[in-house]
Amino acid sequence: MASGSSVDGSLWWDPFSLLLTELEQAPLSSLPPNLAKKLKDNRSWFVDTVSRFKPPNEKSRNALNSPKVEIGSHQLTVQPELKEKALHISSYLCLDEVQSYILVERSLKDDDLGANSIAQEFLHVILLQYYMERQCLLKCTRQILMHALYVGTGSKEGQIMREEALKLISDGLERKLISVMEELLSSSHPEQMDVDLFTLWAEETLIEDNLVLDILFLAYYESFCTCDGGRWKKLCSLYKGITSGDYNIGKLAISSEALQSSYHVKVQLLLILIETLDLETLLQMVHDEIPFRQGVSVFTLSDVQEMDSIISSFNAFELKEAGPLILAWAVFLCLISSLPGKEENSVLMEIDHVGYVRQAFQASSLSYFLEILQSDLLKESDGPSAGYRSVLRTFISAFIASYEINLQIGDSTLNLILDILCKIYRGEESLCIQFWDKESFIDGPIRCLLCNLEGEFPFRTVELVRLLSSLCEGTWPAECVYNFLDKSVGISSLFEISGHSLVDDMSQIVETHLPVHVPGIEGLFIPSNTRGRVLKMIGGHTALVRWEYTQSGLLVLLLRLAQEPYLDKSEEAFLTLDLLSRMVSVNTAVCFALMEIGSLLHLQETGMAGTLEKNVWVVQTICTLVRTLPPNSSSTALMSMCLKILGKMLKCSPSHVAVVVLKANIFDVVLSTSIGDVGGSASSSGSWLLSGKLAKMLLIDCEQNDNDYPLAISVLDFTRQLVETGLEDDSILALVVFSLQYVLVSHEYWKYKAKYVRWKVTLKVLEVMKKCVLSISYYKRLGDVIRDMLLCDSSIHNTLFRIVGTTTQALENIYVSRLYELMEIEGLQLAMGSVLDILFIMLSSFSKDISSSLTVFHQAVLSCTTKPVPIVAAIISLISYFRNPTIQVGAARVLSELLIVADYLQQYSFGNACFGLDDKQITDLRHTVNHILLEKSAWNKDLFVAIVNLLTSAANYQPAFLVAVFAAKESTDLQHSNANDVKQPANEASFEPQGSKKSSLVDALLHHLDRTNDLINSNPRILLNFLNFMKALWQGAAQYTHILKWLRSSENLWKQLSNSVSLIAGVEDPLLENLTEKEALNLACKYQCQSAILEIMAYEMFLQKKFSHAESLVKHAVESKDRIENTVYIEKSKVVKDIMSNWCKSTVLSNLIKSYASCEYNNEKYFHAKLAASLFMVHVMGRLATSDSRTLSVSLVEKILVISKKLISQPAFSELLAQYSQHGYSEGKELNTLILSDLYYHLQGEFEGRKICPGPFKELYQYLVELKLLQTYQLKYEDDFFLTSKPVYLFDLVRLRADMGLDMWDFSEWKASKAIAETMLCCMQDANSMVLLASSKQSALKALITVLTVNEDDSPTRNAIGAKIPDQVVLSCIDHICQCFYATVESLAPILDASEDILCFLAAQAELLLHLMRSAYKSLSLHAFVLVLKTLGSGLKVLSGLRSSVEGVSTTMKLLLRLLLSTVEFTCLSSCLDGVTAIESVEELSVISNTTISLLPILCNCITTEHWTLSLTTMDFILKSFWMPNTWFPILQNHLSLQNVILKLQDNKYFASFPIILKFFLTLARVRGGAEMLVNSGFFSSLRVLFAESLDGRLFSPINSEGGISNSSDKIEPGCIWGLGLSVVTAIIQSLGDGSTCTDIVDNVIPYFFSEKAHMIFYYLNAPDFPSDDPDKKRPRTQRTQTSLAALKETEHTLMLMCVLAKHWNSWVKAMKEMDSELREKSIHLLAFISRGTRRHGEPAIRGAPLLCPPTLKEDFDCCKKESVIKSRHGWFALSPLGCVSKQKFTAVSTALTIKDQATENNDPVSQTYFSDAIALQIYKIAFLLLKFLCLQAEGAAKRAEELEFVDLAHFPELPMPEILHGLQDQAIAIVTELCEANKVDRIQPEVQDVCCLLVQIMEMALYLELCVVQICGIRPVLGRVEDFSKELKLLIRATQGHAFLKVSMKSLKYIISFVYPGLLQSEGLL
C-alpha cells in the first residue's frame, strides 16, 4: 500500500458554519483583518457556491486507500472505520469520496457535543451536517452582499466589503447562481433514500433554492450587476417553468415546510423579475420627462418586444402566479408609453398594456401581492425582506402613478391598494423614512393618495388612520405622522347645499350660516359663517365639504374616541388606538405631546363647555374606554392597545398617570382583602383582589385574536411598569398576585390561536416575576407579601420547574421533532433562560434570610421528587446544552448557588436534598466543563466565567462534589450523596486510585494558567475569576491534595503567577480622572488579580511551614517511600520562597509596597458626589413646587418630598423665611420656592469652588450634605468575580437613572434640568470607580501584608522559609508609606463623617508600617523613627477629631495607637542597642524628644476615646523614656483630664485596665506636681473604692471566704493591683516630702493599710519553713505550695511602703503601737528564710528546692528562654533554678516565699536562666527592704534612747539574730567576690554591677543591725566567726579592687566593719 497520496486542493473546505458566525458577529463599522483574509481565501467557494462539492470520482476513491491523503496544504489520516462510512455516504449523497471522508470525520468529532443525540440514524446525522455546510456557504455569500449593502461606501471598511462583493460578481457569481438554480430545480433524490430522509432532502434542497434566489436578488437590488434583456428572459423562462410544473419543484413540496419553501421560490423569482424591470428608473424618467431613447434603461426596444412575447404567453386565468407578472409588465409598458416622444416608438404604441391590466384585474392578480405580504417570506425570513418590500413599494407607487389611482375608484380596489401599502410600510422603518422624505420621488404617488384621504377627514377616517398607522414606523416617521395630523388645515363633513349657502358656483365655495355638527363628536361644531370647498357630491344636494376650520386632527380623533356611543364603530376605534399606540411606542416626544393635547384648548371655541385638565385628559379618556369595554374579542384588542398607550404615558409621568389609572379602577379591583391576607397559600380568585372580567378577557383574546400584541402581554407589561413606579398600592399588589398566581400558573393551559404566543406570554410573565423579585428590597409594605408568595406558593414553583425541568437530550429531541415549530423552540429556550435567572436571584437573595424552618421553595428546589426532573439533575444536564450558551450560563450560575445553599441548609438536616448524581451525570459534567474551559473561553467569555465560578463555589462549599468532578476515572460514586453529607471532606483514601492519573480538568486549568500574563492586561476579569478558583483550592488544601499536587507539577505555575505580579509592579497607574468606567473597572480587577495571587502565595508558604514541621516530626522515623515522596514534594514547593527572595533582592517588592500604599480613596470625590446630590435634590424640590413631577418615579418623588419637609422644618430655613418676609423679597412668588432657588445657587457656587459664607444657607448646606440623601440608592456590589475582605457599597446608578426617567427629559420641560442630573450621575460614577479601585488596592495591600507576615514569621523554621527584606528597601518603603499615610490623613482633615473605606485603608497602611517597623527596627535610623512618629501624630490628631459614630474610626485609631506604642518602644530600644556612640548627633536626639513631646497633647485627647488604655500606656512609656518631668509635666497639667482617668478605677468594667492606670499614676506620682494632682483629684478615695471592691469583694483576693489561701492561678494576680496601688502611694509620699500635706496623708494611710488591710500586709510578709533533710519532718504532700515572680514583686512593694511610712517616725509610732511588734517579727522570719539560702559551689544541695517559683506569664516563659546574665553559683542564684522548672501543675498558693518538699529528687542539673536570675534578684531586693525597715526601726529606737538618755530594753524593737545576719553577709560576700573575680578582664555588664551594689548594701545593713544587736544585747561574736569573716572579707576586698563602681560602697562597708569588728581591718591590712 502506498504511503500517501494527494488530491486536488479544491476539495478541502474549512467549516462554513464558523465563518458564517464570524460574519454575522462582525461589526458593521470595522472588518477584522483575519476575517478579511478568510473571505479572500474562500472567494472561489463563494463564487462557485455548492457546485464546489464534487461528485464521486475514482482518484478520490483510490486516495482513501492510502494511510494519509494530502489535500493541498492539508493532510488527512485515514481511519479504516471512517473510510467505510465515507464511501457509503459518497454513494448515498453523490459526493466526492474525500469530501465525504472530511464530512464524516467532522460529524463524528462533533458527536460528543450532541450530534448523536440529534438523530440516532447515522445517515440522518451526516445528511444534516452536509446540508448545513452547503447552506452556510450560501449564507456566507448572502451575508457578504448584505454587509456591503448596510455599510455602503462611506468608510474604508465598507469599501473593502463592497469591493469583495463586486469581485464575486466580476468572477461570475450571477451566472453561477443561475446555473446552480437550474441544477437544483432539476435534481433528483438518491434511489435508496427512505421516506424520512427524502423529506429532509427535499426540505433542504428547497432551502438552498431560497438562498440562491436571495443572493441573486441582492445582486440585482444593490446594482452589483444589471439584468439585461437576455438574462431577464432566462429568469422569466425559469419562472414560467416553475409555475407551470415543468421542474420537479412541485414534487418536492411533500411537507408543510417544503410547501412553504416552494412558494417562496416562486415569490422570490417574481420579485426578482419585477425588480429587474427597473421601475424606479422609469419613474425618475417620467418625473424628469426624459424620452426612452435618452434614458438609462438596460432594455432596448427589441428586448421589450421579445420580453413582451414571453409575457403574452402567460395566461392569468390558467396560472395564478402569472397575473402579478402580467400586471407588473403592464405598469412597465404604461410608464414607457408615458415618456416624451412615445409617438416615435411605434413598437411601444402597438403593445396593448391596457389589455394586460384588464386581464390581471379580472384574474384578481393585485390581491396576489397582498398574499405575498401576508406570507412568512417577509415575516420570518432572515433574508433581504426589506428589499422585497421595497420592490413591492416601487411597483405599487408605479401602479398608482400609471393609472392615476385616487379616491374616485371603487372602494374595493382602493381598500386593496391601501391594504397592500399598509403591509409594505408597516414594520419597515427605512421605507417609512423614505416616504416622509419629500425628495423621494418614488413615494410621490403614494403621498398624493394620502393627501387625498386627509382631505376627506374625518368623513373617511378609517382609511386615513390605517395608512398613517403603517407609516409611523420609527422615531422620525412617528413625528411626521403626528405633525401631519396635528397641523390639519380643515375638517370635512356632509353638507346640504342650498341657494343661499353657495358662494361661488364655479369654484364650488359654500358658506354655512349655522353651526355645523362634526360627525362622531357630540358637542363639536363648525362655527357659523365658515366657508368650505365642495369635494364631491354624494347625492342630490348633499355634498362633502372641506371647511376652512383649523383643528388638530389628533384632537378630533381623541374626541371621537371619547364618545361612548361612538364605540360601536370598533374598527375606527381599533385603528385610532393602533395609531396612537404605534406613535407613542417609537417616539417619546410624541407621547409627551399627545398628553399635552387639549391642555391649552379652550373648548368654548368649539361649543363644548369647560376646559381640559393638563396631562390627564388623554389618560382619563383611555381609562374610561377600558373601563366600559364589554368582554368580547374586539374589546380585548382595544384594551390591549389602551394598556400599551397607558404604559408609555406612565413612563412619561408616573405620578400623574398612576394616580388616574388607579382611581379609574380599570381592572375592577375589589378592595375587600387586605394586603396581609394575600400570601403564598392563597389560591382563590378573591386573593387576587380582581373580578373575573380580566381573566375572561384574557381567555377570549388568546382563543380568538391573532395580533402582534396580545392582551395578556399588555396587562403584564402594564403591571411591570406599575411596579417600576415604586408606588405601593393595593391595586398594584392585586395585579402582581393576578399575574403570578393566575397568569403564570394557568397560561400554559390556555387555547392559543397561534402556538408561539404562549411563549410570548410566558416570557412576559417571567419578566414581571423577575422585576418583582428585584424590587422586593425597595418596597417597604408590599415587599414582604410578594416575598412570602414567591417562597410559599407551590403552584408558582411547579410552573417554573416545568419550564426548566428538562434535560439536554430532551431539548435536542425537540429540535428534530416535527411537532414543534422553530418559534416555539426559541420561545422555550428564552423562557428557560429567564427562569434560570429568576431561580438564581431567588436563591442568592432569599437563602440568607431563611428562618428555622425551610420554605416551600427551598424544599422543592432540593427535592428528589420534583417533577418532571429533579432540579439539580436538570440544571447539571442543561450546562451541556451547547446550542444555547445563555442557558448554559444560567444553569451554571444556578448550580453555583445551589451548592452554596446546600451547604447553608445543612444546619437544618434537610435529608431530602437531591444531590444523588450517578456516574454518567458526573462524567458528562466533567466533559462539559473541560470542553468549555478549553474550547469556549475565547468564544463565550460569560460562559467561561460562569463555569469557573461554579468550580469556585464547589471548592468553597462542596469539596466532595468538586473532587468527583475532577476525578480522573470515568465513574465516581456519588449516588448516596445528599444535603447531609454533600459537604463532607474529600476522602483521600477513596480518591487515591485515581490520584496517580492527572485529571483532564487540571490540564484545562494549566492551559489558562499559561495565559495569565496576557489576560491581566487584555481581560483581567477573566483572569480574576480563574484566580479566585485557584485561591479556593489553596484555601481548602486539605481536601484537594491531589489537585494541588497536579497543579504544582507544572513548571510554569509559580512562574506565571509571579510574573503577573512582577510585570505590572512599578508600572504607574493612570489618573482616575483620565479613565473611563470600564478602564477603571479593569484597573480594579488588576489589583484584585494581584491580591488573589499574593493570597495563593501566602497559603503556599503557610503549607510549606506545615510540611516542614511535619518533616521535622518524622525525621527520626524509619525512612519510607512516603517520606521520600514528601521530601521531594517540599523541595519542589520551595520555589515560592525563591520568588520572595528574588522580589526582596530586586525592586519588585519595593514597587508593590509603594504601589499598594498609595490611597485611592478620595474623600473629595465622595463629598463632591454628595454635594451634587444635594444640588440635584434642591433643584427638584423647586421644580416640584412649581410644576409636575414628570418622569420621576413615585418612590423618588416621595423621597424628595420627605426630604423637602425636613429641610423646611430646619431652624435655618425658618430664619430665612423671616428674613425674606421682613425685606419683602417674595415679589409675588411663594417664599419657600424663592429660598430653594437661592439655596440652589449657593450650592452651585460651593460645587464650583465658591465657599458659602456662614449663616442660614451654610447651615442648610451642611444639613443636606450630612443627610445622606441618596443612601437608599446605595447597593452592595455583589459581582461574582469581585471579592474583597469587606462589602463594597456603590451608588446604584442604573436604578437611580430609571427612577429619574432621565432618558426622557429631553422631550419635556425638564430638558433644561438634565445637565444637573447628568452632573450628579457623573460625580457618583466617579465615586463608584474610586471606591472600586481603592477597595481593590486595599485588598491587594492586605494580601501583601499577609505574605510578608507569613514570610517573616518568627517560627523555628524561619530561616528555611522566610526571606529577609533588605534594610535599604525597608527604609525606602517606610518613607513612602509615611508620605502616603500623611496624604490619606490630609484628605480626612476637613470632613466630619469620613467614609469607612478610607479609614480601613488608613488602618491597612498602618498595619503595613507596623510590619516593616518590626522587621527592621534594629537597623532603622533615628530619622525613620522621627518620620513615623510625626506621621502617626498627624493621623491620631485627625482621627480624634472625627465623630466616634463614624464606622471604622475606633478600629483605625486602635491600630495607630498600637503602632505608635511599638514605634516608641523600638525607638528607645534602638537607642539602647546602638548606645551613645551610634547616635549621629545631639540634634537627632532632640528631634526625637521634641517629636515625642508633641505627641503628649494628642495622647491626652485620645484618653477620652475607648482606646484610652493604649494612650495611657504609650504616654507612660514616653514619660519614662525621653523627657525629664519638668518638661512633660506642664503639658500633662494643661491637657490631661486626670479626674476622668481616676474615676475609671471605680468602674469594674475597666478591671483589666487597672494595672495600666496604676502604672501611669506611678510615673506621675514620682513628680511632686503629679503627686499633688493625684491627691487633689481624689486618688486615695478611688484607691479605697478599688481595694474595697477588689480585695474585700473577692474579685481577686488571695484570701478565700474560709480564711484560707485561694488558688491565684484561677484569677488575676491580686498583687498586680495591690502592689501597684502601694507603689503609687509610696511614690506620692516620697514626692511630697516632709510637708504638712504629706503628714496628713501618712496619718491617714498608716491606719488604713495596717489596720483595715493588715491581713494583706501580713499575707505578703509570711515566711515559709525551709525544707528539712530529715524525712520524719517532711510536710504532708497536700501542703505543697508555689509562688510566682509577680508575687515576689508584691512583697517588694509592700516593704517599700513600710519603709517610706517608717521614715515618718512620729506618725508611725503613734499609729502602730499594737502592730509594730508583730510586723517586725514577720519581717525577721522572712529575713531568716532568705538568710538560709547560703549555698556555696561544691557544697551538697539541700533536699528539694527551697523555693518553687515556676514561670506563669508569657514574659516569664520568654525569660526562661534567655541565658543567665549573672551566672553566679552561690546563694539564691544557685538555689532559684531548682524551683523555676515547670514540669507539672501544683496547687498554687499566693504567698511571697514558699517551700516545697519532694519525695524524690531529680539528679539532672538544672541550668540557670534569665528567669532564675530574676527570682534571685527579687529575693535580694526583698532582703534589702527588710533590712532597711529593721534599720529604720533600730534608728528610731536609738533616737528614742538619746532622748531618754537610756536604752529602754522593754520597748526596744525586735532585731534579727546574728546568725540570720551572718547568713546574709556570707551570701553577699560570696556572690560579689565571684562576680568580680569572673569579670576582672572584661567590663562588667550593668546588670551585674547593679547586683553587686545591691548585695554590698545588704551586707552593710546586716552589719549595721549586727552592731545594734551586739551593742544592745551584749552578745559576743560566735567562736570562729571572726576568722571566717576575715578570710571572706579579704577575698572580697581583693576581688573588688579595680572595679570603680564599687569604690564608694566598699568604703562605706569598711566603715561599718570597723565598728562591728574593731581592729580587724587594721590587723589584716585591709584599710
From TrEMBL:
GO CC terms: nuclear pore inner ring
Biological process (GO), any one: RNA export from nucleus
InterPro entries tied to this protein: Nup188 (IPR044840)
GO terms assigned for molecular function: structural constituent of nuclear pore
Name by which UniProt lists this protein: Uncharacterized protein
